Amino acid sequence: MICVNYYLNKLDFMKYLIICLLCIFSLINNVVVSAQNPKQTAKYKKKSNKKEKEKENLKGTYHGTAKDSDEDGVQDFTDKCPGTPKGEKVTPFGCPFDTDFDGLYDYEDLCINEKGPRENGGCPWGDKDSDNIPDNIDECPEFAGIPKFKGCPDTDKDGVKDSEDQCPNQFGQVVNKGCPDQKVDTDGDGLFDNEDLCPKSVGLRSNRGCPDLKPEEKKALQKAFDNLLFESAKDVIIPSSYPSLNELAIVLQNNTIYKLHLEGHTDNVGDDHKNLILSQKRAESTKRYLESRGVPADRITAAGFGETRPKTDNDTEAGRKTNRRVEMTISME
User: Fold this and answer.
1) Which candidate in 4, 96, 137, 223 could, as Cys together with 105 as Cys, close a disulfide (CB 3.0–4.6 Å)?
2) CA 156 to CA 179: how far, in whole Å?
3) Reported confidence tier of residue 126, pLDDT bands at 50, 70, 90
4) What is the mean pLDDT of residues 163-183?
5) Of all helices (H) and strands (E), which one includes residue 263?
6) Residue 140: closest CA among 173, 110, 162
7) Least confident of 21-35, 107-121, 213-227
């Protein structure tokens, strides 16, 4: 600056300009010279290296917010299967491999190279008996069978599967449980076994080959009929009727081939429709009681007929009492 001020006072503008250019050249020359100085060069390099290290340190201290919960190398925000077991190989989307494309990942698939349902561990259903019916729907997987019987065999091809065929090696009829139609009467009661409901017990044709009720059993039935009473205009059985009904239940339990039919009836007093309903309810009430004593429901039927089937006339109290009844019929049907 001293140089500039000095010449500014003594010389004209052209001289001043030349001197300024010389000063600028001198400054540039000094920078180049200093840069060529070994010590100065080392100083510049040290400063430059320091800046580069600072940049690298800044890079190393950056930590992103993305997580990889299952540690499979795929960050959670792009991982389609974030719960993959540790150590399993995954696709770029973070899901385990499913080699056979059956919907089960290889780590849970027992047959990774064969398609199979999940319920069978990813393996195809087998066919142990080689009858072309998969074991999962084959009811007889150990024995070759036919589709008609869900994989169960019918050795004699008579339309009765072996498990129900009493003659599995002889062609027979369905009505004979797979046996030939042989005229056999094992108990000698005049009915062939294929028609006899009791083929090992001598019975009556009217009872379809089964023995008739014993006299004491018939007596129990009549006693139950004679003593069955209800509360007036209700379907409630009077307790005094219970003992005879209990005896009837025992008879039915001891003769399982028999069925009981109950019919409810009323006199002609009152509304016809109400009488019909009452008769039905009384028959059903009797049925429920016998069921409670151990008689299967499918062996008892009940029906109501109201005043439509009188046993005698309704002109007297005695006649009306007779018509108010529940009839009981034991039969094979």
Assistant:
1) 96
2) 10
3) confident
4) 81
5) strand 259-265
6) 162
7) 21-35
- The confidence score (pLDDT) of residue 26 equals 57
Mind listing the pLDDT tens digit for each residue in 237-291? Answer: 999 999 999 999 999 999 888 889 999 999 999 999 999 999 999 999 999 999 9
Q: How far is CA 205 from CA 5, 210, 252, 299, in A?
A: 155, 8, 20, 21
Which one-letter amino acid corresponds to residue 203? Answer: G
* CA 240/CA 281 separation, integer angstroms: 19
* Displacement of CA 94 from its chain's centroid (Å): 33
Q: pTM here?
A: 0.43
Distance CA 69, CA 82 (A): 7
What's residue 32's pLDDT? Answer: 42
In 3D space, the residue among 105, 109, 80 whose CA is nearest the CA of residue 92 turns out to be 80
Neighbours of 83 (CB within 10 A): 9
CATH 3.30.1330.60 for domain 215-331? yes
Cα–Cα distances in angstroms (integers) from residue 42 to residues 1, 27, 28, in the given order: 31, 21, 20
**Beta carbons of 241 and 265 less than 8 angstroms apart:** no
* Residue 185: HSE in the Cβ half-sphere, 13 Å Cα cutoff: 11
- Rounded CA separation 56/269 (Å): 113
- CA–CA separation, 197 and 186 (whole Å): 12
CA distance 86 to 94: 12
Does residue 239 contact residue 277 with C-beta atoms inside 8 Å? no
**Alpha-carbon Rg for the chain in angstroms:** 53
Token output for 236:
């409630």
Strand partners, 304: 264
The pLDDT of residue 1 is 45
